[in-house]
Each structure stands twice: as C-alpha cells, then as structure tokens.
Amino acid sequence: MTKIAILSQDASLYSTRRLKEAGEERGHEIKVVDYLRCYMNITSHRPMVVYQGKQLDDFDAIIPRIGASQTFYGTAVVRQFEMMGVFSVNESVAISRSRDKLRCLQLLAGEGIGLPVTGFANSTKDIDGLIEIVGGAPLVIKLLEGTQGIGVVLAETHQAAKSVIEAFRGLNANILVQEFIKEAGGADVRCFVVNDKVVASMKRQGAEGEFRSNLHRGGTAEKIKLTPEERTTAVRAAKTMGLKVAGVDLLRSNHGPVVMEVNSSPGLEGIENATNLDVAGKIIEFIEKSAAKGKIRDRSRCRA
C-alpha cells in the first residue's frame, strides 16, 4: 500500500474525486490536502510541511493539482515535499516551467517541436512589425497569464489587432501574438500523457462561431485516433517540460501538428467522458511503478 496526498483546493472537483477513487480501488491510502492551508518549516536537516496542525511526514507520493493562479505558493509546497524526499507525479520546476507560456514555447522551439508562428514584444512602437512576423491578420492575441481561453482574442484585421495589442499593453499586460490556424476549424486535440505515453486523446470542437475549443465554453469532445506524428509530438512536448503527467493541446495545421499548450494539471472529466478510459487509474499505476523506486527523480531539480 502506498500513502498518497492529492494537493487540491477542492475535494469535490471531478479530477480530485476520480484520483481518490482510483487510488482507493487499488488499495492505497489517499488524502486530499488543501495546499494553500499548508505551512512549512524550512530547515537544512529537517524540512517540514504542516497541515491542520499535523506534520505531513509519512506520504510516499503526492499528486499536485495546482491552480494556475496559485502557482507560486503551490509549487513552493511541492518543492518542500521534494526536499523531504517524497515522490511527486510532476516536479515543482516542471510545473513552473509549463505555467510560463513564453518560457514553454521557447523551450519547445529549442527542441524543434512544431508551434504556431509566435511573436512577443514589449513596446507598442513595434506593433506593425510584430503583426507582420506572424503573417498578418487574422491572428490570435493571448495574455501570458490567461487560462481556459480567458484573455485569448481573435483579431480579424490589422487595425483590430493593433487596437487590442495597444489596449493590453496599455494595461501593462504581457501578450503573445500567434498566427491563426484557420484550417483547424475551431478544433484542437487534447493528448493526455502519462509517463511518456499518450494514454488517451480527444478532439475538442468549439461552439458555432467560437474559435476557442474549451469545453466549458460550450465546446464538445469526442474520442480520436492520433497520427504517429501527433503522438510523438505530444510525448516530446511533455518530456521537454519535464512533466510525467500532462495535457498537451495540438492544432492540426497544414504543416503538421503544432503545440498550443502543455498543461501540468490537466482535467480528467472531459477526457474520461469522451474516451470512457480510466485515465485516473493510469496515473495511480504510474505512482505504483515509480514511488517505490526512490522518491524524487533528481534532487537538484527541486532547487532549479
């Protein structure tokens, strides 16, 4: 039996419940821990995490489900568990790496992984050049801090793009500008990667008139068979981020699959409902194989 903590703010969330159920079905002891209510004793010889007045020193593994808006504190808690030698499904540095959209794209580009043409700039004086870099309008403008489709705008004309970019930069918001993959038709592919293998995949189709395919925005999902290139791209993207559990979002473009995002806390509800696969069980199986081998994979990483 393995003792596993799920770091989640809400025990009632589908993903948290499914992971708890899957772990208990396999005979493990599972506890949901609200990471925001943890506090830490940072010492050289006896690092400690305390929750509800009790020291958490007997877990074999943790499953981080860190909200995007709580990345700083959440990864600090994960890092503290790593310092204690606890196995983490995704390590703190990998979570931080994936949450920085610009850093993520730069790392993926460095590995030669397919991406939409992307531009990034600081000054509003360079907007025309920035728009031209990505091939002109229509184009997509994204807030670096946005999640779940929030802060993503399709600008259909050059003037509209200039206006949106100027508005965002006027608020001192950091943005990316990307080519619009029209041939994707408002659909993307979510690949769920566990331990360097794609264990499930689905196609998400945006609602009519909506270029974003997020399910909570009215999109639909269906099970899909990946091409070998799509499967390889998803695995390479997760590996580049250092993530053992990841949701890799791809668009099908005329020049092959391009990565839109690598998610370190991918939701389970959409993928399990679309595919009828026990994805939560695959994550627990990965822990069973890995946690007993010797805690965190690279102790130096938790200090990166």
Question: What would you note in describing this structure?
Answer:
It is a single chain. With 304 residues, the protein is α+β, with helices and mostly antiparallel strands. The chain folds into 3 domains: 3-90, 3-Layer(aba) Sandwich (Rossmann fold), CATH 3.40.50; 98-112 and 183-284, ATP-grasp fold, B domain (D-amino Acid Aminotransferase, Chain A, domain 1, 2-Layer Sandwich); 118-180, Dna Ligase, domain 1, CATH 3.30.1490. The protein has 9 helices and 16 strands. A 5-stranded antiparallel sheet has the order 14-13-12-15-16, sandwiched between helices. Strands 2-1-6-7 form a 4-stranded parallel sheet, with helices on both faces. It has a 4-stranded antiparallel sheet with strand order 8-11-9-10, with helices on one face. Helix 2 runs antiparallel to helix 3. The protein is globular and about 60 Å long. The two termini are 31 Å apart. Residues 298-304 have low confidence and may be disordered.
Oligomeric state, counting identical vs distinct chains: single chain
Point out poorly predicted stretches: 298-304
Strand runs, count: 16
Count the DSSP helices: 9
Task: Count the domains.
Answer: 3
Strand order of the largest sheet: 14-13-12-15-16
User: Which CATH-level-2 architecture of the largest domain?
Assistant: 2-Layer Sandwich
- Give the overall average pLDDT: 89
Sheet with most strands: 5 strands, antiparallel
CATH superfamily of the largest domain: ATP-grasp fold, B domain
Percent range of helical residues: 25-40%
Order of helices and strands: EHEEEEEHEHHEHEEHEEEEHEEHH
* Rg measurement, Å: 20 Å
CATH class of the largest domain: Alpha Beta
Shape: globular
CATH topology of the largest domain: D-amino Acid Aminotransferase, Chain A, domain 1
What class, by secondary structure content? alpha+beta
